[in-house]
């Protein structure tokens, strides 16, 4: 389902950097606009105008016929659904090993609340337990098949076979010189490694996603590094960019937007 279930959480996580908030949402939005929502989510969220309020920041999302059509940083007029939460709640969900289960708890404990607009919407969203159970069920693990008993046959002991020793001359291996113009940066659950990097003009930086929670990442260059921008990529995948002129800037993790690194190109 290409992370549609976590769409709200990923967008909400961008509130941590107020100065870059609009840029982060605008960069993330194309990855979700036009996506088909799975049936459990589409039942509730098809044909909606949703305002998500996180502390003092609001994100507007429009869905039509089970598709996400618009993601914006401005509050929508005539919303059909308002969702309220805090940055602390969003961070707790994203850092959890089971984010969907944590989302269910937040709904149950009213750390995330919502207010439907319109008669039919009020009926649809009137049962908090149904709303929370739907998301919690999506986060559960599938049942594993039962293990079948495997019979192990007894094998006769293998007789020792004498093998003539053969002298093998070791070939001298040529030393492989490291490419000093390529710099590897890991994106972990705790942030970029390294957090600061100084390189030369013409050097390439390769960002590698080395985390599983969440198992998606996105590189977004701020200020003069705005051309360094990746699509969302998964754990084990990489994105690289070659810097062709001197610059000092900040690189932001487009998913865990509280994580940044400083880059200087001489």
Description:
The two termini are 43 Å apart. This protein has 266 residues and is an alpha+beta fold. Strand 2 (57-64) and strand 3 (67-72) form a beta hairpin. Helices cover 23% and strands 28% of the residues. The chain has helices spanning 7-12, 21-32, 39-45, 87-95, 99-108, 119-124, 128-138, and strands at 48-54, 57-64, 67-72, 81-85, 113-116, 182-188, 191-193, 196-199, 204-209, 216-217, 219-221, 233-234, 238-242, 247-253, 260-265. The strands form four sheets. It has a five-stranded mixed β-sheet. It has a four-stranded mixed β-sheet with strand order 7-6-9-13, with no helix packed on it. A four-stranded mixed β-sheet has the order 8-15-14-11, with no helix packed on it. It folds into two domains: 4-138, 2-Layer Sandwich (Nonspecific Lipid-transfer Protein, Chain A), CATH 3.30.1050; 182-265, Cupredoxins -  blue copper proteins (Immunoglobulin-like), CATH 2.60.40.420.
